[in-house]
Design brief:
The chain is 43% helix and 12% strand. The protein has 14 helices and 11 strands. Bound molecules: adenosine monophosphate and magnesium ion. Belongs to the SELO family.
């Protein structure tokens, strides 16, 4: 492993010791992911490194600096307040390893730097589920309890999570360097980001910067399209939680959409609905604009010209987003191509779903089960009958096998249902392990299988109006 952030600028990666656990227990481990990392650690070393008990091969653990817009308000000094970067792997694919809950750092500002077992389990389950749904995401290698209690509403067991990411370069990382007027630091960060994520960029000078922004915009578009496709609500799309790689990061207040509603919000602190389900495209665009502003620092042209070039890139966001958006709905509806009248077919369905509070996943899963001749696997909701006639007529224009393939790839049968995630967390608190997760995980790993499911795994929340999420740490 190596440290890729040490040379960005002084203060960008701050070496800082990790909190020492008193007794470690590995409670969750992603073996397939560990194999992908190509690390030849012994079992003992693995637990020692992933609990923060020792640093990896001579690399000091460090906390990374970043700024960020939180709910639209700029915070210049965020940074890893409860996380330590361990290093970057050097196998075929390159990954950062970072511990979360590994103790206070110079960025903690009064926070304890720790993580409770519940949010650690949530991160493991959600990231595994989101990854299996085919959405770009950071992954979770392990959850280790530390033997130290942490104080939240009361005392609860503390845990350390190991996050694996293709990088930890955030929009907020660029904002931090822009704020410091760190021109050469930003150039180094740009080169690291290009090397890691967009090696196809060959241009130089201002074009290179603009091409980078273009690629980030495109990966953000793909990411948000996938979130919308599977019904994921991130909940806290602050610029510090926006990676230039286009991976999902931070699963604190996230939730899955159940009753269809573009205005759905679950996070207790998102009072204005800034990060509501249907707001996510606008926010991704807004975050990309904050990246563009930061990149102004390293543009060579005069200010007006530079601004015009970056603005041109940003202006394409909506066009590309809308193209991808139509393709997404076409796939969800089983339409190999999209014509104008399909807009009406779609909006009629969405209005019906909203008015009848239909479950997003189960409605599309029921349509898919019709298309793949597994009728009955999911019950078609009442209220759709008239619409169904129109939809069946439209898909009959295409090859049935093609329709079936499109739909079964776009519409998951299994998603990480909010109530089940909470039950798994409860079991971990009560028993230290989760029999429910043991049964559920194989299904979460194969969400497009369309087999007979125990109702437990497809039922929506029993008291949806009560469900809230928290930026829990
Ligand atoms: P997040 O909401 O997870 O994106 O975190 C926002 C900021 O708050 C980051 O700078 C975190 O490092 C910091 N933070 C969150 N929880 C804690 C904690 N328990 N102790 C110290 N800092 C924290
Ligand atoms: Mg964060």
């Amino acid at each position: 492993m190596q440290n890729d952030y040490a040379t960005i600028t002084e203060g960008f990666a701050v070496d800082y010791p990790m909190a020492q656990p008193s007794s470690v227990k590995l409670v969750l481990f992603n073996k397939e992911l560990f194999e992908k990392l190509e690390l030849n650690w012994t079992e003992k070393e693995t637990v020692s490194y992933l609990s923060g008990s020792s640093c990896v091969g001579g690399i000091s653990a460090s906390a990374l600096a970043y700024s960020g817009h939180q709910f639209g308000h700029f915070n210049p000094t965020l940074g890893d307040g409860r996380a330590h970067y361990l290093g970057t792997t050097q196998g075929k694919d390159i990954f950062d390893l970072q511990l979360k809950g590994s103790g206070a750092t110079p960025f903690s500002r009064g926070g304890d730097g720790l993580c409770a077992l519940g949010p650690a389990v949530r991160e493991f389950v959600m990231s595994q589920a989101i990854q299996s749904l085919g959405v770009k995401t950071t992954e979770c290698l392990s959850v280790i309890t530390t033997g130290n209690d942490v104080y939240r509403q009361g005392y609860v067991p503390g845990a350390v999570v190991c996050r694996v990411a293709s990088s930890h370069i955030r929009v907020g990382s660029f904002q931090y360097l822009a704020l410091q007027q760190e021109k050469s630091g930003m150039e180094r960060l740009l080169e690291l980001a290009i090397k890691r994520h967009y090696p196809q960029i060959q241009s130089q000078g201002d074009d290179r910067v603009c091409d980078f922004l273009k690629h980030v915009c495109n990966t953000q578009i793909s990411l948000i399209i996938d979130w919308l496709r599977v019904g994921f609500i991130h909940g806290v799309m602050n610029t510090d939680n926006c990676l230039v790689s286009g991976e999902t990061i931070d699963f604190g207040p996230c939730a899955m959409l159940e009753a269809f509603d573009f205005n759905a919000v679950f996070s207790s602190i998102d009072k204005q609905g800034r990060y509501a389900f249907g707001q996510q495209p606008n926010i991704a665009h807004w975050n990309c604009a904050r990246l563009a502003e930061s990149l102004m620092l390293i543009m060579e042209d005069d200010e007006e010209q530079a601004l015009a070039k970056l603005t041109d890139v940003l202006n394409d966001f909506s066009k590309y987003f809308n193209e991808a958006y139509h393709i997404m709905w076409a796939q969800k509806l089983g339409l190999p191509d999209w014509r104008d009248s399909d807009n009406e077919l779609l909006s009629e369905l969405l209005v019906l779903m909203k008015n009848h509070q239909l479950d997003y996943t189960n409605t599309f899963a029921a349509l898919t089960s019709l298309a793949i001749n597994k009728e009955g696997l999911f019950t078609l909701p009442a209220g759709l009958n008239e619409w169904l006639v129109k939809w069946k007529k439209r898909i009959s224009e295409f090859d049935a096998a093609e329709v079936a393939t499109l739909m079964s790839k776009a519409n998951p049968a299994i998603v990480p249902r909010n109530e089940l995630v909470e039950k798994v967390i409860e079991e971990f608190y009560e028993k230290g392990h989760s029999p429910l997760l043991n049964k559920w995980l194989p299904l979460l790993k194969n969400p497009y299988d369309y087999q007979e499911y125990d109702l437990v795994f497809t039922a929506r929340h029993s008291k949806p109006e009560t469900y809230q999420t928290f930026c829990g740490t």
